[in-house]
Structures are given as structure tokens and as C-alpha cells.
Design goal:
Shape: globular
Number of helices: 9
Strand order of the largest sheet: 2-1-3-4-5-10
CATH topology of one domain: Rossmann fold
Largest sheet: 6 strands, parallel
Helix content: 40-55%
Order of helices and strands: EHEHEHEHEEHEEEHEEHEHH
Number of strands: 12
Distance between the termini: 24 Å
CATH class of one domain: Alpha Beta
CATH architecture of one domain: 3-Layer(aba) Sandwich
Oligomer: single chain
Length: 298
């Protein structure tokens, strides 16, 4: 199975390359060869990749900056995703597109289901909703995977930030009134390979559409930080005091959904795929980061 992946350095792309091993050949495509804002470059690059499946993992992900750059975010996450969907349709290959919990406003009292209406509260979320709409309109042979709170041993993410802060601070304040599902990009990589294989080998309509894919269990950001610091102590790091704060104590340009929890029942029932509990996967990530050098350029 040959998979063309948009993007070359993101967490999901990096983890897909690692997890594929002998199961799949991963071809990563990024600028200048593939530029999501340039329709012709997208079509040409994906055509030349001669792939069996396309995974759209490239995106504009600067949530706060998007408030001032909504037009650019829309060009990449909306129009650019449409270009990828158009290419997949023309090539006749399945498409896996990654979306986000930010398509919801966070006001629900329960985890969000795929059937719940989208209602983004920021520019980034609006751009991702537009991308979902374009995939649905242009490429019926597609699975849209919404994930959330992604971390890994690679790139910039919450886990690496907390470990860095823990080296220099005795106390760290972390938001405790936002709920979500911490999700390992390594687990996303494993699950994506399974989804890709099913899409390639089975034309069943129920395998297409929107699915939620997050780690099992829920937490607030402070819970995650607490687990990171506790695991780091097991590696000999000094203790770090955790101060639980509110969102109001940590203002950001973009509003965050208070409830980012996603219900993964559909993915489990239709694909038989369920990601591990977040605490187990988080411990694995922290162990890797503290065991030795990690590719910081990823």
C-alpha cells in the first residue's frame, strides 16, 4: 500500500512514517513541490506520487494567529483541502482527511458525536469546517477523521512544553476548566494505517464520512500536566508544583472550546478501531522524550 501524505514535518506525518514500517510505503509531499494554496501543484504532485491512498495531514494550525490571518487559514484549510479532495477524486483513490475538535463550540455537556452540528467559535475552526465541507462535496470516497489535543515525541506540543518548563520552574499554572481527549500521534498513525487499508479494500459506504478519533478517557489540561510531571519524577526529574487555573487566568487571542471531548463510538463500531487510554500513551511518550535524543526538527 503506497500512501501519499500532504505535509513533511508535522506530528502525524512523522508518526505515520515511523509506524508504517513494512506495512505501507509513505510518500510525504510538501512545499515547494506541493503547496495547498496552489491547485495545480497539488494536482500535479499527487498525480506523480502514484499512490493507492491519500492522507491530508498538512494544515494551517496556528490557532491564535489565525484570528489575524483568517483569510490565509481559509486558503490552506478550506480551499487547499478542496484541492486535495479534487485530486483524490480525479485519481480514483481513497482520501483520509484530518479535522479537529475546534469545529464545535464546546457548549455541550457530553462528548460530541459526528452527527452534532458544527459551530466553530474561532477562525481556525471555521477554516477546518470549510475543509470538511469541500471534502464531502468533492470526494465521496473519503474518511474525515476528527482528532484533538495531539502530542508526540516530535515537534512542538503540550507534553514537550511541560517537560521544558519543568526543567526551570518550581511551579507551573495550567488550565483546569477545559475538557478533552489527549491523543498520541503515534496512536493516530497506527489507526490511520488500519483505516487506509479498509478504505482501499472495501467500497462499503459506511466506511466513508466523518469519524472521531481520539485517545480513550478524558482530562483537563492540568490533569495532563500532572501526569507528565509525575512520570518525569519517575525518571529522576525534580518535583514540579501544579497550580490549577481557569481559562480566564490564561487569556489567548482565540477562544478554546470548554468541552473538546469527542465520542469515538462510530469509529469503534464501523472500523473496529479504538485508540488506547491517554494515560498509557502519554507515559510512553514521556518515556521516549526522557530516554534520549529526539528529532527536534520534526
Amino acid at each position: 500500500m503506497r500512501i501519499a501524505v500532504t505535509g513533511t514535518q508535522g506530528q502525524i506525518v512523522t508518526c505515520l512514517r515511523e509506524r508504517a514500517a513494512a506495512d505501507a510505503e509513505i510518500v510525504t509531499l510538501g512545499r515547494p513541490l506541493l503547496d495547498l494554496t496552489d491547485r495545480e501543484s497539488v494536482l500535479e504532485a499527487l498525480c506523480e506520487a502514484r499512490c493507492d491512498v491519500i492522507v491530508n495531514a498538512a494544515a494551517y494550525t496556528a490557532v491564535d494567529k489565525a484570528e489575524q490571518e483568517e483569510q490565509l487559514a481559509m486558503r490552506i484549510n478550506g480551499e487547499g483541502t478542496g484541492h486535495v479532495a479534487e485530486a483524490a477524486a480525479e485519481l480514483g483513490v481513497p482520501l483520509i482527511h484530518f479535522s479537529t475538535d475546534y469545529v464545535f463550540d464546546g457548549s455541550a455537556a457530553r462528548p460530541y458525536r459526528e452527527s452534532d452540528p458544527t459551530a466553530p467559535i474561532g477562525a481556525y475552526g471555521r477554516s477546518k469546517v470549510e475543509g470538511e465541507k469541500r471534502v464531502a462535496a468533492l470526494c465521496p470516497n473519503a474518511a474525515i477523521l476528527r482528532t484533538a489535543w495531539v502530542y508526540s515525541p516530535f515537534g512542538a506540543n503540550f507534553v514537550r512544553t511541560m517537560l521544558r518548563l519543568g526543567e526551570t520552574r518550581e511551579e507551573v499554572g495550567v488550565v483546569a476548566d477545559q475538557l478533552g481527549n489527549p491523543t498520541s500521534a503515534l496512536d493516530i498513525g497506527d489507526a490511520t494505517l488500519r483505516v487506509a487499508a479498509r478504505l482501499l479494500g472495501d467500497r462499503a459506504p459506511q466506511l466513508r464520512g466523518v469519524f472521531h478519533m481520539t485517545g480513550a478517557g478524558e482530562a483537563c489540561w492540568a490533569d495532563v500536566a500532572e501526569a507528565i510531571f509525575a512520570r518525569a519524577e519517575e525518571h529522576g526529574r525534580r518535583p514540579v508544583r501544579l497550580r490549577r487555573i481557569t481559562t480566564a487566568n490564561y487569556p489567548t487571542p482565540a477562544r478554546r472550546p470548554a468541552n473538546s471531548r469527542l465520542d469515538n463510538t462510530k469509529l469503534s463500531q464501523i472500523y473496529g478501531v479504538a485508540l488506547p487510554d491517554w494515560r498509557r500513551s502519554l507515559a510512553t511518550c514521556v518515556d521516549r522524550l526522557l530516554a534520549g535524543p529526539t528529532d527536534r526538527g520534526a
